[in-house]
Write a structure and sequence with these properties.
heterodimer; A: 580 residues; mainly alpha; 4 domains; 81% helix; 0% strand; globular; B: 247 residues; alpha/beta; Rossmann fold; six-stranded mixed beta sheet; 9 helices; 38% helix
């Protein structure tokens, strides 16, 4: 069987499977489908409005007009390119080296090269569709701001095809080299090291605009500085430059330049694919075999090799032992959960990326530092920061805490059979996740408040709020996770791998996220209202007495108590009668 | 039909398969036994070409699985202990897909699938999604799909896990029948009575080394145990000294 026949067969089967998945939506809960549809439409509508307003405002800046809009586009595509590359590397590793389907395909009478080609296409689609979905409102807003015709959107769609292929090919080359030549344990530590070095480099080398520049109110000069700082994104060697240039040219009606950059993009996409496929001839099967043949890693230095697994054990246990009077069953569960999390690549790698992005967020806060002369602006930025931190917290709890109960899957019987019961399991998950997330968000909040130069009393208010919110959001995540478990995605009975991302994408995960968002909106609303009421009374330059905030904080504490206890008590009741 | 020449596989410092040399002729039913962690699954993955040997080579029907993987796999069927299936397909759709992957004509696939569905008792499941099938039914479907393209070599890892007695009997009968028809069957199992019942030859692997190979009677002689295969197996795996005394 040649490669083309193999592709045709696989395409046919996958199209059938996709159709069945789409048809299966009819069997899903009406509530879930409605909520998701509303969410999608709401996102597109809100995204379009925000981007369109932004583009119009930028276009009104005297002397710069569309230059800023275009630079936004260069910046956007540069970041999109980086995100696509990371996404392709993570998904590519799973589809090329860890998937059971890939193992099965490698036993068929087809070349491993054909398997690689198919899996590369699959990776590109899986890694890219979400970014395209998310960027659709931006594209629509840009087109509208430029008053383009409908053909423009078709051209943009065509542009996106080679644009998504390049990061996929580069990502696959990186994965092929890493898997072939680097032991996975070395890779794990190397990635961790690179992330730390990357964050340190970002702190020292990324120079966002300083507050002093803004205080001078020299807007045009500041914008020139912004253009200067972001000049790295207009380097003609970057694929993001080609896609943005082509789009801008088509937006302006200059078809020659647009076609030129499209062809540059297309030829480079073809070249990158060719290099990737050529390399795969030598590295893919070798890498696959090596990846599935790696035993305990040895450095060859007896002193270093001997205790390589012991420090993990000792460190985890030592850390957990710091907690006084912990029940031995709880202690065992905590140690198990920490170890399983750290050893699961799909969990910690996303965790690292998640916090890398958070690091960038905190770094960029320097550009909106607290202005003592504008109380209203200061409180606005502070609450915006609280909102961002709590949204981050909600994402964190939904992505990492919600699947914890489902992940136990078929293993649940084992811990369910011990004399302490599933109640203890649930409580352990709640306390462990609450303490960890509270610690993380507290650090985030204190750092961001310090960078924003928020006054002490407001910092204390926000810090105490995020701690309370951590417990509430973990209560929601653990509670909903046990009330709506998704064992099918995490079970081994139907031959699927444990995949937390799949568990989150079910009804329970969606419901948990929406409930968390609703809780955040009420909490922030409760704290914002008295603050602005006090501004309204005392004028918008000076704040009145913050007594209203004290009452709102009490309300937030009570609300959080309810948000924690209601889902948790329902979940505890459910696990009492759960049939495993 | 299956040959290994000094086949060796190392996982870091661990030698999972150590200098394995085997020659299994056409039509032989070969049972591969060994304690947990002996290296059976690694050997099977080396034979199926999923892993690259550290040294030595494996040949299927005369084709080196590393140098001519496509030719070797045309005549080979491999059923792993954790087989893969597409959940959103129906059994017949899966059979059609597999048959076409092996270059079979659609009509031939349907005809062969009908026969295999009869033999394996899968007719009732034709219109169900694979995701709704029980573990045993899925296992029968996987084995049926492995037999679809009339392979000359079947490598099968722990096929009886999760099968009820009737299904297990069907699988045993089909595999033995194929073996009589000239198909070489390489079966890895922990269930010693299956080996006793079906195998022409038995190989015992311990800590990566082939410590005994021969008919069940020969193994009894070598082990000094006259009773069941279990006694011979336990005696042989107790130490590797017996390897030197093999015929």
């Amino acid at each position: 069987m040649n490669g083309l026949q193999f592709f045709r067969l696989l395409a046919g089967v996958n199209a059938r499977i996709l159709r069945r998945h789409i048809l299966a939506v009819r069997e899903k809960s009406f509530l879930m489908v409605s909520v998701i549809t509303l969410f999608v439409v709401g996102y597109w509508f809100a995204g379009y409005s925000v981007f369109f307003t932004g583009f119009r405002r930028l276009a009104d800046v005297p002397g710069l007009q569309m230059i800023l809009v275009d630079r936004m586009l260069y910046l956007f595509f540069a970041f999109l390119f980086l995100m696509l590359m990371f996404s392709n590397m993570i998904i590519g590793y799973s589809t090329l080296f860890k998937s059971q389907e890939t193992q099965w395909m490698l036993t068929l009478p087809v070349r491993s090269l054909d398997v690689f080609r198919w899996k590369l296409m699959e990776t590109t689609l899986l890694a890219s569709w979400a970014f395209l979905f998310l960027s659709a409102p931006l594209m629509a807003a840009y087109g509208n701001a430029r008053h383009v015709s409908g053909v423009f959107y078709l051209k943009v769609f065509l542009l996106f095809i080679p644009f998504t292929v390049i990061p996929a090919a580069i990502g696959s080359i990186a994965i092929l080299i890493v898997t072939r030549y680097l032991h996975r344990h070395v890779f794990k530590w190397a990635l961790f090291g690179v992330s730390v070095v990357g964050i340190i480099c970002a702190i020292f080398f990324l120079k966002p605009m300083q507050a002093e520049d803004l205080e001078k109110a020299q807007i045009v000069a500041s914008l020139h500085q912004l253009l200067h700082t972001s000049r790295v994104t207009v380097q003609p060697i970057l694929p993001s430059y080609w896609v943005a240039s082509s789009m801008i040219a088509w937006g302006d009606g200059g078809s020659g330049r647009g076609i030129f950059f499209f062809l540059v993009l297309l030829s480079n996409a073809m070249m990158a694919t060719l290099v990737s496929v050529t390399i795969s001839r030598h590295l893919y099967y070798e890498g696959w075999s090596r990846n599935h043949s790696q035993g305990h890693f040895q450095l060859g230095v007896p002193l270093l090799d001997a205790p390589i697994s012991l420090p993990h054990t000792a460190l985890t246990e030592r850390l957990v032992n710091l907690w006084p009077r912990m029940h031995h069953a709880t202690r065992a569960l905590v140690i198990k959960d920490i170890r399983v999390f750290w050893r699961d690549t799909s969990q910690w790698s996303q965790f690292v990326i998640f916090f890398g992005l958070l690091g960038l967020y905190v770094l960029n806060l320097r550009s909106v530092a607290y202005d003592r002369n504008m109380e209203l602006w200061a409180s606005f930025v502070s609450f915006l920061n609280l909102g961002a931190s709590s949204m981050t917290l909600a994402t964190l709890t939904t992505r990492f805490v919600f699947p914890q109960f489902s992940l136990e899957g078929k293993r649940l019987w084992m811990i369910g059979m011990v004399p302490y019961g599933l109640k203890r399991v649930l409580l352990e998950k709640f306390w462990l996740s609450s303490v960890c997330t509270a610690a993380i968000t507290l650090v985030l909040m204190l750092t961001s408040s310090w960078m924003l130069r928020i006054p002490g009393w407001l910092t204390l208010l926000f810090a105490s709020t995020v701690v309370v919110m951590s417990f509430a959001l973990c209560g929601i995540a653990v509670g909903i996770g046990a009330l709506f478990p998704n064992f099918s995605s995490g079970s081994t009975a139907n031959r699927r791998d444990d995949n937390p991302a799949k568990i989150v994408s079910g009804f329970g995960g969606t419901f948990c996220f929406i409930l968390s968002l609703a809780y955040i909106v009420v909490v922030i609303g409760a704290e914002v209202a008295p603050m602005y009421a006090s501004f309204a009374v005392s004028g918008f330059t000076e704040r009145g007495q913050p007594w209203g905030l004290v009452f709102s904080w009490i309300f937030v504490a009570l609300l959080s108590l309810a948000a924690t206890s209601i889902p948790m008590s329902l979940a505890l009741k459910k696990v009492e009668s759960l049939e495993i | 039909m299956i040959q290994t020449e000094h086949l060796t596989k190392r996982y870091g410092g661990l030698v999972a398969v150590n200098d394995l040399t085997l020659d299994i002729p056409q039509g032989q039913f070969f049972a591969f036994l060994g304690p947990n962690g002996a290296g059976k699954t690694t050997t099977i993955k080396l034979l199926a070409g999923l892993l690259k040997p550290t040294s030595g080579r494996a040949l299927i029907g005369g084709y080196d699985i590393q140098k001519n993987p496509v030719e070797a796999r045309k005549i080979l069927s491999y059923v792993p202990d954790m087989p893969f299936l597409y959940d959103k397909l129906e059994p017949m759709e899966f059979m059609l897909f597999v048959g076409q992957l092996y270059g079979m004509d659609r009509v031939d696939v349907v005809r062969a699938s009908d026969e295999l569905f009869d033999v394996f008792g899968l007719n009732d499941t034709r219109r169900q999604m694979i995701e709704n099938l029980s573990h045993g039914t899925r296992q029968r479907l996987v084995i049926a799909s492995a037999l679809l393209h009339q392979p000359k070599v079947i490598i099968i890892d722990e096929p009886m896990v999760g099968l009820d007695p009737r299904s297990a009997r069907v699988v045993k009968n089909v595999l033995k029948e194929r073996s009589r028809d000239g198909v070489t069957v390489f079966l890895s199992t922990h269930v010693l009575h299956i080996a006793e019942e079906l195998a022409d030859q038995v190989g015992i692997l311990n800590r990566g080394k082939l410590i005994a190979v021969g008919t069940i009677d020969e193994l009894r002689v070598v082990s000094g145990e006259k009773g069941e295969l279990e006694d011979a197996f336990l005696a042989l795996t107790r130490g590797e000294e017996a390897a030197a005394q093999l015929p």
